[in-house]
Structures are given as C-alpha cells and as structure tokens.
Predict the structure.
Amino acid sequence: MKMNGTQNLIMKMLMLVMLVCSSAVLKAQPDYDFTTSIQVSGSGNPSNVMVGDVYRFLNVKPGVDALVTITDITGGITVSALDAGSGYPEALQPTLEVPPFTSGYLEMYFEFIDHTTDLPLTMAEVPVTCIDVDGMKDNDGLGNPLNAALWLARTMVEVGNPLKAGDIIMSGALGPMVTVAPGDVLDTRINGLGTVRAVFAAK
C-alpha cells in the first residue's frame, strides 16, 4: 500500500502514541517494597511468628502501608521469619520450617492502608506468585537425597523385604504428602515404569 505524505505522518503519530502508551503501562506495573516492617500486635517474637500476629509493612508503595495478619499455620510448621530479607525487596518471602514427611501451609491476610491516615485503600493490582516447596530440605527431610535412600534401604531390611539389584528408588517427592484413611485406595502411574496401587484396609 502506497502512502501519501499525510498518511505517512498519521502513521508516525499513531506509532508514537502507541510507544508512549506502552511505556506508561510498563511504568504502571506494581512496584511494591516489603523491606521495612514492624510488629503491631501478637507474640512479639519475630523469629517465631504465630497465628494472630499482625505486621505493618511501611511504604510498600509511596504513601501506602500493608497490614499482614497471620490467620493460620498448619502441619507443625514454624515460621522463623515473615520476610527473610533476601531476594527481591518487592516480594514478601516467609521462611517456613516444616517437619520432615509432613505437609501444611501458612495463611496470611493482607490489608492496604494509607500511611498517614490508616484509612483502607484498594489496590488496582497486587501481583502474587506462590512457590510451593514440599517443606523438606533437599526434598527428603534428611538433608540429602542419598540419606533418604539409605533410610529406605535400612527400613526395608528391618521389615524383611530388602532392596534388590535393579530396584528403582525415587528419593524426592513427586507430589505433596497426603493423609490416608482406612479404606483408601491410591493409584500411581509413572510412564515408562508402570502402575502401583496401595489399598488401606478398612477397620
């Protein structure tokens, strides 16, 4: 398509407007900062966060504070820091210590308030990225995947069914730990290996 001078000028103006708008959108992305906090109520022990603790993160955005309330901690988890202080300042990164071979979660409630008046604010966008870690150091709760394999080998000898040459050992978790109840039937299929079924007898 051949353009005359006016069309060419209009196209250049349109491209310039699009460039300015896209730049404004990029600058409008959330730029939260969770580096400064004070505990406003609760246990008073920042190295052992408890249900009911409330923390105020100051100026997460200019003129905006965030109140973070711990609403639930399950599975024997210990929260040794609400924000580990390493990594990204825009991320709230709790440090969870999970007992081996258990599962649980930390639940938090966020409120955004005006830094000066404490009036509630509604944020247009709050980006959230949850990173699910099974809570086990090196995926086995024993400090190293080889320790898990050693534990398994010893346990199988104790129960009278020792490991044999050619057995396949998977020392990491493929999914979360689950609680089983009498009567449950669990099926697992791994491509290339086959299917295994566990049936838990009813009482």
In short: Helices lie at 5-27, 145-158.
